[in-house]
Write a structure and sequence with these properties.
The complex is a heterodimer of chains A (about 250) and B (about 230). Helix content of chain A is about 35%, strand content about 25%. With about 250 residues, chain A is an alpha/beta fold. By secondary structure, chain B is mainly α. Chain B has 8 helices and no strands. Chain B is flat and about 70 Å long. The chains are: A alpha/beta (about 250), B mainly alpha (about 230). At the A-B interface, α2, β6 and α3 of A face α5 and α6 of B.
Chain lengths: ~250, ~230
């Protein structure tokens, strides 16, 4: 698998151009620029508080920005006249804390977006939902509620829920950080499967094994800045910045 | 005092007490609670909207209503609404509203202030991540509220909403000030007519006690049933 060769000629699926963001007087993103090409898997990593989660949430405008611009599939996220709900429906997102809807069954969780946003019929939505549930290996749990599943199972349902909208790109915000160690693997397996099928993915994670396996590029952030934006092999084998070297030595030490 | 306790006074007046009095009390409670919860939810959403033009009037309304005695509000509406109606329709005379309509409007508006505080806490009890997840799926504000936030807020607040409804059930007895007859009023009338104050007021107290205790028990049972599995 030659993961390092990005299809560089294609138009970017996500283009982040010089964005900055402040919480009051505190600047959390400083002039960040990067992009994700169609079919590419980009891993965003960095120490905690570096702004990586904030960065990924700006892509579907869950976090507003004060400077710069972002386009998804050529559509300006901040542009006036952009149908934000429609744009978001095409961008799948998986959260650190799963955020399944606890008052709805697994099946209803998978059907909600399809029914309300895409206007699919109940039968079509159910059939798509159950197919995806089978794909993440949880068919037996269709009638249960999120609280009855383990963390790993909930996160797999969350991935299936995002996929139910037929997204053109998937965002993962630390999808394994809230999981017990023994459940990390089952979630990463689903994500590796997605990557191999050619899904465009932007993944905030500390899982360097995952990055080595499927990433095309690695974006390293520190203190709100993108410090390094390199091909996977370059990043791991010869990181240029001191900060990335320090980070890698800490995270790969054990 | 209990040596001449006359049970027959109570038995003889049962059809009137329940057929007229209790039917009124329950009707007013049910309608005002329903209207109050709907209106209260809207007010809570206004307060949490982050839009000053909506949040500030909602806040003023809630604080205003909560600082007034209910009896005063009942009076006030009863005498004022006909004139507001006259002013709004441009009629030559005050619009006759009727005591029941007036009471229903009053209780709905008054209780809405209390229900809105409960629903506000309920909405805030749902984590921010749920809103993010709903938005990320492409749901708009209305859909996010209707399918994700409010159903959870409502479930979390069922005990408080029903407790407030029990308070409302008791408060409806205040309609005597505009000459309406609820259960309490009916008992009072019989007591005065027959000179049987002890019997009728004890009976009324027992009925309120039984109904409210039963309701409280049902609330606890219901709470377990509607609770979200966590």
């Amino acid at each position: 698998m030659s993961a390092s060769a990005s299809p560089a000629s294609a138009a970017p699926m996500i283009a982040i151009n010089g964005i900055s963001k402040w919480y009051g007087p505190v600047q959390v993103l400083n002039d960040c620029t990067t992009q994700v090409t169609k079919g590419e898997v980009v891993v965003v990593c960095g120490p905690s508080g570096s702004g990586k989660s904030t960065l990924i949430k700006t892509v579907n405008a869950l976090e507003p920005i004060q400077k710069g611009s972002i386009t998804v599939d050529g559509i300006g996220v901040q542009a006036k006249g952009t149908d934000l709900p429609k744009l978001r429906s095409r961008v799948g997102m998986v959260f650190q804390h799963f955020e399944l809807f606890p008052h709805l069954s697994i099946t209803d969780n998978l059907m909600l977006g399809q029914r309300k946003v895409l206007g699919r019929s109940a039968e079509a939505a159910r059939s798509t939902g159950l197919t995806l549930l089978e794909r993440v290996g949880l068919s037996a749990h269709a009638h249960k509620y999120p609280g009855q599943l383990s963390g790993g199972q909930q996160q797999r349902v969350a991935i299936a829920r995002a996929l139910s909208m037929n997204p053109i790109v998937m965002l993962f915000d630390e999808p394994t950080s809230a999981l017990d160690p023994e459940m990390v693997g089952e979630v990463l397996d689903v994500m590796v499967g997605l990557a191999k099928e050619g899904m465009t993915m932007m993944v905030v994670t500390h899982e360097m094994g995952f990055a080595r396996k499927v990433a095309n590029r690695v974006v390293f952030m520190d203190r709100g800045e993108i410090v390094e934006d390199a091909g996977k092999d370059d990043f791991f084998d010869k990181p240029r910045s001191d900060r990335a070297q320090t980070f890698l030595s800490k995270i790969l030490a054990h | 005092m209990f040596s001449d306790f006359d049970l027959n006074v109570i038995l003889g007046s049962l059809p009137y007490l329940f057929g007229t009095g209790m039917v009124f009390t329950v009707t007013l409670t049910a309608l005002a609670a329903t209207g109050g919860i709907i209106l209260g939810t809207l007010i809570a959403m206004m307060r949490l909207s982050g839009i000053a033009a909506l949040a500030i009037p909602a806040k003023i309304y809630v604080n205003f209503m909560r600082s007034l005695p209910l009896v005063l509000v009942i009076f006030w509406f009863y005498f004022l609404v006909p004139y507001i109606g006259q002013w709004m329709t441009g009629a030559s005379r005050p619009i006759s509203v009727g005591a029941f309509t007036s009471a229903l409007v009053t209780f709905t508006l008054f209780e809405a202030a209390f229900f809105s505080e409960i629903m506000r806490a309920g909405i805030q009890s749902v984590s921010k991540g749920q809103t993010s997840a709903a938005q990320a799926l492409g749901l708009n504000y209305r859909q996010t509220m209707a399918t994700v936030i409010l159903p959870q807020a409502f479930r979390n607040m069922v005990p408080l909403l029903l407790t407030q409804t029990i308070v409302l059930f008791q408060d409806t007895s205040l309609v005597y000030v505009i000459s309406l007859t609820d259960f309490m009023g009916a008992a009072s009338k019989v007591a005065q007519r027959d000179g049987r104050l002890v019997e009728m007021y004890i009976f009324a107290a027992v009925v309120y006690l039984i109904i409210c205790l039963t309701a409280s028990t049902l609330v606890r049972r219901l709470q377990r049933r509607v609770a979200i599995i966590r």
